[in-house]
Amino acid sequence: MPVRSLTLAGDAVADVAPALERLREELDVPGEFPPAALAEAHEAAAAPPAHPVDATDVELVTIDPPDAMDLDQALHLQRAGSGYLVQYAIADPASFVAPGGDLDRAVHERGMTFYGPDGRIGLHPDVLAEDAASLLPDQVRAACLWRIRLDADGEITDVEVVRAQVRSRAKLSYEQVQRHLDGEAGGAVPPMLELLRDVGTLRQEREADRGGASLPIPEQEVAEEDGRYQLRYRAALDVEEWNAQVSLLTGIAAARLMRDKRAGVLRTLPEADPRDVKRLRRAASGLGIEWPSDEPYGRMLRRLDASRPAHAAFLEEATTLFRGAGYLTFDGELPPSSPHGAIGAEYAHVTAPLRRLVDRYGLEICLAASAGTDVPDWVREALPALPKTMSTAGQRSGAYERECVNLVEAVLLAPRVGEAFPGVVVEVDERDEDRPPKGTVVVPEPAVRATVTGEALPLGEVTSVTLAEADPETRRVAFTHP
């Protein structure tokens, strides 16, 4: 299930820093790497691999948040007859991390990068993740280079992936690329990025045809207005969605290669529970969002504008559709078709190996499938335990990210206890005779989703709720109605 994210800046970071440190201790969030693991990382960084395939002539660029340094992906797009050629370089930490070594064990203990409002806690040491293995601009780097051919409709016609030396030409931000595509560019942005809109839009259309649903989750931001901090939503830019479609495209191609190889690790998600869809329809009604009864939720989500508070609140609530994500491994015997419920196709994680452990294994299988070679023994031996490793990591990182958001919400809302806010009750628990009715309310401004208690909770309607509690110690925010 997607997790809310929140960004802090300036004095807001200092205001919550002590509480964030206590939270990390409480949840046993990873700290420093063991000395032996760091020593291995520095040794590997000092002697980076040199792959025999030279693809440094491919004019790749990275597109990320402006402060990101752990750059997993670089892309180049071009026309190919009536279709397209997508070249997608993915960082190659497997060429730096020795299986079974101290660094490998430390990385397995983490499982993924942890994100908080005051920074990231990396899966790999920074000497690799933000330097030697990162696809930084103007640096020759070892990578796994995907070449995916698409037809005029954006469907996959051919896939290959090889280890190669690559060189990114530029580190671009989403904002830079969006301004370029909107005709408001300042500075040079590669013209080939004009194709990102075309390919991204085609892939969005194919996703809708499959019954998939990309969810542009709005990010909570803390902004200072009139001398106090405010919580608000930041809508994702169009280019972020188009860029995400290239990653999804690669994950779909990876799943196909894995089936061909009869070995793999798929990312799975059940279809949305009809009860959750029904509850979401009530929220849409309460927030004034039109949703025809015959319109699939995937197509409806694409119509929303997350810069509008009501739409942002609805998208936040829509994350509850995506419950039960996991991993399915196989080696030899093929599993039944296992499409990812939100994507509408089989899918594998392979595009973020600097930040997610499972991607390193997925990439190795795809490289072997593309080359017609055997899957390495260290990959096969690790497959059975990977789902549990990633589940544990996901639970830890998810709990940390959720509690970070809860903490910041409580800190910023504490001075406003007693104020009334318009909100929509999106869920009501079954009544317990020993307690008053309880439910969940989405408040568009400030950007909060929290518990609400009170008699006759008006499900799916805009109503006034009063902030009854905002406690930084318990990280609890609660409203009452009326």
Task: Provide an overview of this structure.
- The chain is α+β, with helices and mostly antiparallel strands and 482 residues long.
- The protein has two domains: 6-272 and 322-410, no CATH class; 414-480, OB fold (Dihydrolipoamide Acetyltransferase, E2P).
- Helix content is 35%, strand content 25%.
- The chain is built from 13 helices and 17 strands.
- It has helices at 11-26, 35-46, 102-110, 126-132, 174-181, 194-210, 238-261, 274-286, 297-302, 309-318, 357-371, 377-382, 386-413; strands at residues 6-7, 60-64, 73-80, 83-91, 114-116, 119-121, 140-150, 156-173, 219-225, 228-234, 263-268, 326-331, 420-428, 438-443, 448-453, 462-471, 476-480.
- A five-stranded mixed beta sheet has the order 2-8-7-4-3. Strands 13-14-15-17-16 form a five-stranded mixed beta barrel.
- α2 (35-46) packs across α3, α2 runs parallel beside α4 (126-132) and α7 (238-261) crosses α11.
- The chain starts with 5 loop residues before the first strand and ends with a strand.
- The model has no long low-confidence stretch (mean pLDDT 90).
